[in-house]
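As a next step, the fold was encoded as tokens, giving this record:
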Amino acid sequence: MPKLPVLPLSLLALGAAAQEQPQPNVIIIFADDLGYGDLECYGAKNVETPAVNRLARNGIQFANAHAVASTSTPSRYSLLTGEYSWRRPGTDVAPGNAGMIVRPEQYTIADMFKSAGYQTAAFGKWHLGLGNRTGEQDWNAPLPAALGDLGFDYSYIMAATADRVPCVFIENGLVANYDPEAPIYVSYRENFEGEPTGADNPELLYNLRPSHGHDMSIVNGISRIGYMKGGGKALWKDENIADSITQHAIDYIVAHQDEPFFMYFATNDVHVPRFPHERFRGKNKMGLRGDAIAQFDWSVGQLLATLDSLGLTDNTLILLSSDNGPVVDDGYDDQAEELLNGHSPTGPLRGGKYSAFEGGTRIPLIVHWPATIKGGQQSDALVSQIDWLASLAALTGAKIPQGEAPDSRDQLAVLLGQDTVGRDYVIEQANNHALSLRTSQWKYIEPSDGAPLITWGPKIETGYLQTPQLYDMTVVGEQTNVAAQHPEVVFDLAERLRKEKTKR
């Protein structure tokens, strides 16, 4: 496709250009548990990601971008609200029957886009709760609180993740393809009488078996976290999840091609249980995890092909990233560890999902907008997903209500390649709530309690230590704690973190 002339990269010029072309469509492609080293353009071994490579080749690839947290729910909460998750109780990893964690009265990124005249939609993994109260949802009726209350005009989502019940899609607050002959009941306390579980009926696990935990209700030959009864025709098949999410997103783009739209496209890949479509299954030398990365890339390619066919690619801003760092064995016996064959999901980084180390929160980020961004750029700017709401508000001209998105800052110039420095510092949250403060040169991890390794299965260093940690980030790998050699730096960064914690 011929490229449009590259526009001057200044905010003033951007404002002038906006008067000559329609508001850009905006798509956030948000992978699940995709590591810094899991994409070909970031140096991945043993897997090809041509669609993502295309975005990187024609956009900006960031080397120092960070999620707010090293686990899913707090990371997604922060991105969508512009508020650090550690400021809000109840934002830890949510069960599938959690009540809404982002409350209807909060201002979200979808609210912002709606105020700027956009159509808004969310697809795929949600994991931020539904309904008014945890454990009290009636899954057989319209949910009293859902994404329509958070600014999304349309939604087709999973309540939590594929390893948690309920294993059905929710479309605009209703179970999609609801089967009245198989009413749905969900519990995270006890099983329903007569329902098989992975723990008691392993002979029924014809697709995947658990390696640790994940041995409760069985759906599609895979046992899950939590208990569920019913569902019938509404139950998903894991091998069709990516196809279903992607097709609904494509249909949405086609339906709204003549008006600006914002899409939050949150894939299930590469979260467990990894059971991709047979088009991908068994094709990658790394096994199911490699197949899932390839399936993620296919989803990206399908969205790009749709935009191309409609002539929307040039004026669509795409941000592709991940919610947190990677995990290899996260509860299913899929041989992901045994079949790495030299691949490092975190690249050169230490730690992974759940961790305070860099592998937990440094994530891939590619920004693609051919009408405005010159392709082939690499950026070392320090970037945090906390700033996406304010940055995209600056793009659309939307005004954020006073007191909302309190931690989000306008970093649009960074995302568009004008500023190659970025933030003074970013803040990261580990699974045990330990916070880190990261500058371009230093990373300070506050003291916290906890074991040095994850205790429930994954082979991941936590980064927890009861004394302060300081790492020189000009040296890759966070191997040497230099806190004792630089007490003045420790004091300065600890004081900055203390001031952040006391902000209201």
Q: What stands out?
A: The radius of gyration is 22 Å. The first strand starts at residue 25 and ends at 31. The chain is about 20% helix and 15% strand. Residues 1-19 have pLDDT under 50 and may be disordered.
